[in-house]
Amino acid sequence: MNLLFEVPYWYGVFARGATVGRGFSTGAARIFPLFYLQLAFTFLVDLSLHPIYHRYYTSPTYARLYWIAQFATMVTAAWGVLFEVIRHGFARGRAKTFGRVALSILTIVVIVCGVLWSSRPGIYADTTRNTVLERDFRCFEAFLIMSLLAARSYFRVQLSKQLKALLLGLGVYVGFSLLFLAGTSYAPKSIGDRFPFFQSSSYLVCVTIWLFGLWSKPSRTSKFAQNFPQNGTRKPELALQPKQTVSS
User: Fold this and answer.
1) pLDDT at residue 151 is higher than 80
2) Contact, 170 vs 77, CB < 8 A?
3) The whole model's pTM is what?
4) CA distance 45 to 75
5) 159 φ, ψ to 5°?
6) How far apart are the first and last CA of the chain?
7) What separation in angstroms does the CA of 22 have from each of 86, 218, 233?
8) Most buried of the four, 3, 75, 159, 186, by CB within 10 Å?
9) Each residue of 94-108: pLDDT tens digit?
């Protein structure tokens, strides 16, 4: 494995490890447990599989382990981020029903996608089938992210800094992934073979956004994002922000 692979690889491991460590030290892991669980999972997977990647980089073993780890992290990352955004951002008032429906759809799609992948032996050796499956899943992620943004505007939801960072990071990664997956399918092979590297690089941008967006200590540990105005005249309370108190 060359330096072009090693540097981004270890930066991704470092960024995720730093984000998880900071989350536990500030208490953010108690607020967004599923997000930090999936991030810790991907951190441990990449950290433990690096010796195998390094040794079997040019063998079929690498392809098998890479696709298993890649799909597992893809599913858990999408589920962890979107679940936390929906659970905190769309948990009260008029947005509550939308949040429940979105969570149900997300759960069903993740289960179906996992079953389809696990029920196809040898799919890791078929790059085309992997690309198609990932493309379909990424399209659903993009649709759900756009739906959340539309619902945020419709219900006048004011997301906290942490929730914005979660959604922005995932949105960047999903958007670039779709772009590179399309390039892999239609671009000449000499160019398309380079797209997986750029897709991995976009994930580094994603985890960097999470690292800086979640670095500050949350002010509150409530299970909801904000209070929704019923009459449409009062601004909603920002998620995870301290209430104003009057001192004597």
Assistant:
1) yes
2) yes
3) 0.78
4) 14
5) -80, 150
6) 65
7) 23, 11, 37
8) 159
9) 888 898 888 888 888
